[in-house]
Task: inverse folding
């Protein structure tokens, strides 16, 4: 079985551009069609490793923004309370998974919040979310190790049982 790239599959776009004389630039419509065909393969999502410094051992959590309005928050053994006042588990989505609300919740308690952004692909995000769902809710001392297991080495991040070490590892991640 041979591999055919998405670009090779878009014969109509290539034919459209090929039919133009070489000294005439493609129209805006042609460029837009070509860009749209490439966009899905180039789209990056964003995963954020959250490190809290709270005067104790700290805390770690994980937020995923898929860019489509369906955020995901994994707050293992956390005490974050969404604005609606109901926390049903360590996994949250939609409005309950707002990174801005999560950050504000901790800053209002005078904790320091470090956000370590990772340019993950949608496939990596799906795998991270699936692993987080499999891990589920955990007891208090397992926040960083649970986030580490959910990441499972994505972007070369080495896991840790300590939130500060996991934060340092995420800060030096390489998602290329």
Result:
């Amino acid at each position: 079985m041979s591999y055919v790239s998405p670009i090779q599959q878009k014969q109509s776009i290539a034919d459209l551009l090929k039919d133009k004389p070489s000294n005439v630039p493609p129209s805006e419509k042609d460029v837009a069609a070509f860009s749209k065909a490439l966009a899905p393969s180039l789209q990056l999502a964003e995963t954020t490793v959250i490190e809290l410094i709270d005067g104790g051992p700290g805390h770690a959590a994980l937020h995923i923004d898929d860019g489509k309005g369906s955020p995901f928050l994994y707050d293992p053994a956390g005490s974050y309370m969404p604005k609606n006042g109901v926390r049903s588990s360590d996994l949250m989505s939609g409005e309950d998974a707002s990174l801005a609300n999560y950050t504000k919740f901790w800053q209002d308690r005078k904790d320091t919040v470090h956000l370590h952004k990772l340019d993950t692909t949608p496939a990596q995000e799906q795998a991270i979310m699936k692993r987080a769902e499999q891990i589920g809710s955990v007891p208090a001392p397992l926040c960083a190790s649970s986030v580490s297991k959910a990441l499972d080495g994505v972007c070369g991040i080495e896991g840790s049982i300590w939130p500060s070490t996991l934060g340092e590892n995420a800060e030096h991640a390489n998602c290329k």
